[in-house]
Specification:
By secondary structure, the protein is α+β, with helices and mostly antiparallel strands. It has four helices and 15 strands. The strands form five sheets. Strands 1, 2, 4 and 5 form a four-stranded antiparallel sheet that branches. A hairpin with a 6-residue loop joins strand 11 and strand 12. The termini are far apart. The mean pLDDT is about 95. Bound molecules: 2-amino-4-trifluoromethylsulfanyl-butyric acid (MF3) and cobalt (II) ion (2 copies). The site of one cobalt (II) ion has 5 residues, from loops. 2-amino-4-trifluoromethylsulfanyl-butyric acid binds next to strand 4.
Amino acid sequence: MTQKCRIYSSEDFVHLRKVGELTAHILDYITSYVTDGVTTLELDRLCHEEILRHNAIPAPLGYNGYPKATCISVNHVVCHGIPSDKKLADGDILNIDITVILNGWYGDSSRMYVVGKPSKRAMELIDTTYESLMLGIGLVRPGIRLGDIGHAIQRFVEARKFSVVRDYCGHGIGRVFHDDPTVLHFGKSNSGPMLELGNVFTIEPMVNVGGYKTKVLKDGWTAVTSDRSLSAQFEHTIGVTEEGCEIFTLSKLGMHKPPYDIKRQ
Ligand code: MF3
Ligand code: CO
Ligand code: CO
């Protein structure tokens, strides 16, 4: 079962850089609004408006019937949290996942945010998840196999006594939202497709304090940890280059992981 991985040209990379920059900007922009008492619906509305102001489209809205512009996953929600009128409270941790379409090109990225002062364990979870993503990204270059990346992420996370979600994965992206290859955040080294110059995909590990199992709530979207333990995720869209890779969705303001130094624009 080999997966055909599309090859994008250096001209394509110009578009991917542009949409990646916008995706990162939305995540930067929303940072100062994440506070005690705000609803995730309000955060969704702010992101949606900022996306439209840049003549872009929020990819999740209407995607397989998804009802909102963003996914906001709070505490034990692993991913695909639907923005709601529930207020954030001190100690909450949350992931905001933004996918935008700009001139037909997709950018997909997510970060963790915190409200007030979460527990030490929650902050360790966030740090470990971020470090696992960056460790995976650091391995990307032509000739490496995707299994090498998943294996390294899993080994790192489990050494910290956390677990890696198996039910959701990264994906090829570019002219479409979800493409081949499937990017697992666990598994065997020396397995899976071999990366080539011009491949474009996401890495987006979801890491839990407890077990790796997840379940989907009755709304058909919200994925939660089966044991209701906390979960964290970070995501970047990257492209394979000769030297390694280019991260299209890096924050220009250095807002990589919480706690953020808030600069309102
Ligand atoms: N942005 C998510 C990802 O990283 C996908 C969200 S699909 C939605 O792949 F429909 F839930 F929005
Ligand atoms: Co993604
Ligand atoms: Co995403």
